[in-house]
Amino acid sequence: MRPKSTKKRIIQVISYTGLSFLAFLMVVPFIVMITTALKPENELFSHAGSWMGTYLAWENFTYAWNYIPFGKFFINSIFVSLSVTFLEVLTSSLAAYAFARLRFPGRDLLFYLYLGTLMIPAQVTIVPQFILMNQFGWVDSYQALILPAAFTAFGTFLLRQFFLTVPFELEESARIDGCSRFGTYFRIMLPLSKPALATLGVFAFVTQWNAFFWPLVITNTEDMKVLSVGLKMFQGIYGTEWHLMMAASAIVIIPSMIVFGFLQRYLVEGIQLTGMGGR
Amino acid sequence: MSVLPDIDNREANRVGMMKLTSQKRRRKKWNSEALAGYLFLTPNIIGFLSFTAVPVLVSLILSFYDWEMLIPPIFVGLENFKNLFLNDPLFYQVIKNTLYYVGVYVPFNIVAAMILALWLCSITKGVAIYRTLFFLPVLAPTVAAAFIWKYMFEPNIGFVNTFLGWFGIAGPNWLGDTKYAMLAIIIMSVWKMVGYNMVIFIAGIHSIPASLYEAAKIDGANSWNRFVYITLPMLSPALFFAVVMTIITSFQVFDQAYIMTAGGPANATNTIVMYIYESGFQFFKMGYASSIAWVLFGVIFTVTMIQMKVQKKWVNYD
Prior knowledge:
The complex is a heterodimer. By secondary structure, chain A is mainly α. Chain A has helices spanning about 1-35, 60-65, 70-100, 105-115, 120-135, 140-150, 155-165, 170-175, 180-190, 195-210, 215-220, 225-240, 240-275. In chain A, α8 runs antiparallel to α9 (about 180-190). By secondary structure, chain B is mostly helical.
């Protein structure tokens, strides 16, 4: 008995050591970001090999914060992401209810049309979307940032898959008791689907928060920029001042990661439910 | 899409049940049900039509036009595609670069994600902590993550070359060298997204019945055999799905490359989507940009269809 358990223990030690090393490699970039953001400018080269400079240069954060209007970018990102999330959850849940629960001519055809568009790269639609926004005079506006992102086939697909797993019986009896279709959707389906709605909500928020391509194309003034595009602007001005670049990255990454860290469970569930989205 | 046959079957069963229980009532109320269906769909479908379906068609039409925004569009037939394939060396370059990215990134990502998932499923303590650490980069905003990696790859003071220096290796000028720039972007992308597929695989592994492993153990199968004959076949639907989705998204690589190298040096990291961005939104050649986008779609569609065909040979849905 004894040699076997020793062997097992050795394997366990090796296993945990290897995993910890890999986990360390995953975290290294974040450590590099924080330590560089706290290095004094003139020590970037002299202390390149060490984690710390001679003192913690907190002023780097003040500089970075003041060089570009981060406050404005944060507010834009929060407003745009919350609006997209609200619209996406609302309209996707309505459409998903129709696809999962109601029968009408053309339903399956429409659903396959939705599914089919999941395969089309966003870049195919981006030129016509830009032209459309230009026609409306909406270039560089909140509408242009929010609306094209708010109606996704992905959200409808995710909620439909979940709605199909909710038992029919509750709705049937509610209908017999005289509840309207909108009533069964609102009073029965939505409360029963809270986990899926939360999952989609978190997905929509994180995707929008990290989105770059469309905001880059559709905004040009500082007033309308969201965090990702604003940060890109920082690179244009201070691209070689690494201590400031890292401070700016930390200003964006740290609050995002803290919030998303708490919401991680929903993201993992969403990925596992559909195997996609949020990329 | 036959990607999710179990769910489609489930729905079929349920529709069947529904028919039996409420056929009569349903027939009477069919009209009101159809009306309700369309009403529920309306908000989403208006957005879907205006921002997805119609733009897809417009983009297809635009790809046959020469349009530089200021003057009215001119119909040129297949001229854009002809120019792409016959007179545009940069187009071949971006296709080559993108294929190189996809060809290295996808296997790298899938294998690493699989190893991590199997590893995490083999330990008992601290699973949640390790999973969180591997998943962390997925949550990081790409632009900020790309900033960090640009610094990591800085040739003189960046962490990568400092690290290599500890072992006496003189690292290259990663992002400034045409030979290494794309590789650097691939390394960054694997770091960023490996946690995503890992999470898919963990869910797949957890759904394999433990009884299969117990039976195999009794029959004397070693751990390699258990992996090859149980885990891999049982995991094949998840694996298939992850491969398809990872290929689709990696053909659209843009953010990291745009931030870290802006396509350089000498177009070594210029990708298809970056070329669409340049043509459409820097040179305002809207027709040309649309035709590149359709070539991209054609490539993704073809690759996906081939995978759908081939999956019958290796994906196990029982």
